[in-house]
Amino acid sequence: MQRSLFLKALSIIVLMLLIALPLMMIEGTIRSRIHFREEAVRSIAEDSVSNQTLLGPLLIIPYTENYQEEEIEEASKQKVLRARKLKRQIFVFPDQLTLNATVDTDQRYRGMHKVLVYSGQHVISGDYEIPKLDSIAHEKNNSTITLGEPYISLGLSDTRGLKNVPKISFAKTDYEFMQNSKLDRFAHGLHAPVPLNNLQQGGKMDFDLKLTIDGIEQMAFVPIAKNNQFTVSSKWQHPQFFGRFLPSAKPTERKIDANGFSVVWNISSLSSNAQQQIFESECCTAASANRNNSGNASAANYIAAAAAVGQIDSFGVAFIEPVNAYSQSDRATKYGLLFVALSFAAFFLFEILKQLPIHPVQYALVGLALVLFFLLLLSLSEHIAFWKAYLTASVACISLIAVYLSNALKSWQRGLGFGVALSVLYGVLFGLLQSENNALIMGSALLFAVLAAIMLITRKVDWYQIGKTPSNVSQA
């Protein structure tokens, strides 16, 4: 009898391993559905608008420098002066940059897949510290400077998100933006030519503009100013912040609740490499026009690296579902083998304590019914709310197992008891799925409770005498 008990336990373990195969197939189905959703996001982005990244506004002053350079002629070995022409740009970054964005979210559907889109009202203001243009002379003698047409550049990763032609108020005059940012890295953007005579005197000049930007799922910003303050507010309740900088931790500048969120980023040029990265990504010689620590305007030549750098420092917020039906179904499936193991353990203990044999085929059928729950949950959650899908799938599977076990165990009370136990188990799993932060402690408590129950129930069982003295086992 000990041998038969061992073989029964071994067969149960083999059945569990075999049932793990359809669980893996269901996990593969979930991954494929997640892939289809990602395809839906890409499809909507191709047809309408994609994620957005905003850079600027940045004032750029192009100029041509003509100078003479001494050179030794190969034939005569004499020193001669050669005329040289070099095209340069002055990058004038904002001294102060303030952005206030109010974002409204909506939903778009591609088939059964739901994607979040947004429309943001952006109010941008700040000022430039314009350098004195006569301070950009070449280090060598006989250098002359020819200034080009200055322009304000605004980088935007997908200009399809602009619903009107924006204007910028610069030095108390409005200028309309045109296509192309004239930046190599952010070619998709806008630029607004400004008259050169406005810049001749140098000094501080203010600017402000308003932008309505549509996008999909996330919005990012590049902190290019000496002092940056970005404020984003929305009624969306589940923001996800990303990038190199997180919002301020001050209670007055960070609010996230059931009514939405409002957060503030305060970033200085000392903590960001965005300005240097823009220089390098443009692959040109430029002069910086930021104020130095003493507050005076300065200009310095900067020779960019031969190759452009990778990503520019940025940050932003994502408007996405933190836990969607597919992620919850995937998490639920990971508990599938635990469900089967607990159910099989209950059957095995029932056999030991009640001396009522359960055939391996009955184990297998109950295990498949448990696995089918996760497939039902996935398919239903694509059409109805997740909690409704969970309730429907669990009621269907529990009812099926309870009716089946009522006949297999020769008693409807026993079938009903197993149904109640499964109901408790499914309820605990739903709690695990809803409480992501407490999932580990809840799962640990569940396993401890199950192990404690098994140990208490079998504490008087003499495992060596099972099968030899059934009366002792029954008495236990």
Describe this entry's structure for a reader.
This protein has helices at residues 2-47, 274-282, 325-333, 336-354, 360-381, 386-408, 412-434, 439-457, 470-475, and strands spanning 52-72, 79-92, 94-110, 113-130, 144-147, 151-156, 167-170, 173-176, 178-179, 189-193, 203-216, 218-222, 227-234, 239-243, 254-257, 260-268, 285-288, 300-303, 315-319. With 476 residues, it is an alpha+beta fold. A hairpin with a 6-residue loop joins strand 1 and strand 2 (79-92). Helix 1 (2-47) packs antiparallel against helix 3 and helix 7 packs antiparallel against helix 8 (439-457). The model is unreliable at 284-310 and 469-476 (pLDDT under 50).
Q: Over all CA atoms, what is the radius of gyration? A: 35 Å
Distance between the termini: 18 Å
Category from helices, strands and their pairing: alpha+beta
Taken together, the total number of domains comes to 2
Estimate the mean pLDDT confidence. Answer: 76
Ranges with pLDDT <50 over ≥5 residues? Answer: 284-310, 469-476
Tell me the major beta sheet.
Answer: 11 strands, mixed
